[in-house]
Amino acid sequence: MPATDQMAEQTMHPATRIDVRLEALEASLAAGLRFSNDLGATTRRGLRDQQSLLYAVVELLMARGVVHLHEIEARRQEIAQSLEEAHAGQKLYLVDAPDKYAVRDAPVIDCDARLELCRASCCRLWFSLSPQDLDERVVKWDYTRPYAIAQAPDGRCLHQDPAMRCGIYANRPHVCRTYDCRNDQRIWIDFERRIPNPALQHPEWPRVPEKGAQPATA
To answer: Which of 119, 152, 204, 218 is most buried (most C-beta within 10 Å)?
Structure first.
């Protein structure tokens, strides 16, 4: 901000100063969105041109008997699978979950009585957020894997406090409201007998091979 603008801002009423900053932020955001939209439109036009060229080449080759449709389809599937694996980390992790505030049949679990056993390990599980979470701008997401839940370096949810409590409990995602750990063998060997999975002690859980329990099904 130029020095003259800074001096003028200092003479403003605090409420007016906030409005000015919000207007500047909105203008910057609008410019960024416009750039993104323009770039997206340019990319789409380029893809359409390449698509038209590819269709034309394929049709000519088929018409001349150089290649056959079943050969093209088989090769297309192989390449698609290869590209999917190569770009697995570049996808958007976004789930179309129901309204999280409409959940009425959430599992009832005595979490407080089990924290010393499970160490709130459910808060170390990775999951995708929903558009509702993003719209609220309360739940933080991982900037390197949009829009997955943000996690601290130790793998725990970024919203979990030192007492293993949720810092955004009222706004927690849908999966946090509906997740049921009772039959998840990644966490419990025997829920009723209060026997946790020893693998929970591993610093890289749940990304390490299980010992003493069968992996839970999705």
So the answer is: 119
Range of the domain at 132: 100-201
3-class secondary structure, 151: strand
Domain presence at residue 154: yes
- Determine the average pLDDT of the residues in 66-78: 92
In a shared domain, residues 66 and 111: no
Within 13 Å and on the Cβ side, how many CA atoms surround 61? 12
Q: How many CB atoms neighbour CB 117 within 10 A? A: 13
Tell me the whole-structure pTM to 2 decimals. Answer: 0.60
**Residue 48 neighbours by CB under 8 Å, 6+ apart:** none
- Cα–Cα distance measured from residue 16 to residue 83, given in angstroms and rounded to the nearest whole number: 52
Specify if 215 maps to a domain: no
Question: From residue 54, how far is each of 61, 64, 66, 118 by CA, in Å?
Answer: 11, 16, 15, 55
Whether 95 maps to a domain, the answer reads: no
Asked whether the CA dihedral 167, 170, 175, 181 is positive or negative, the reply is: positive
Q: What is the pLDDT of residues 35-53, one digit of tens each?
A: 888 888 899 899 999 999 9
Q: Evaluate if residue 207 carries a pLDDT over 80.
A: no
Do residues 143 and 187 share a domain?
yes
CA distance 111 to 127: 20
The answer to whether position 175 is within a domain reads yes
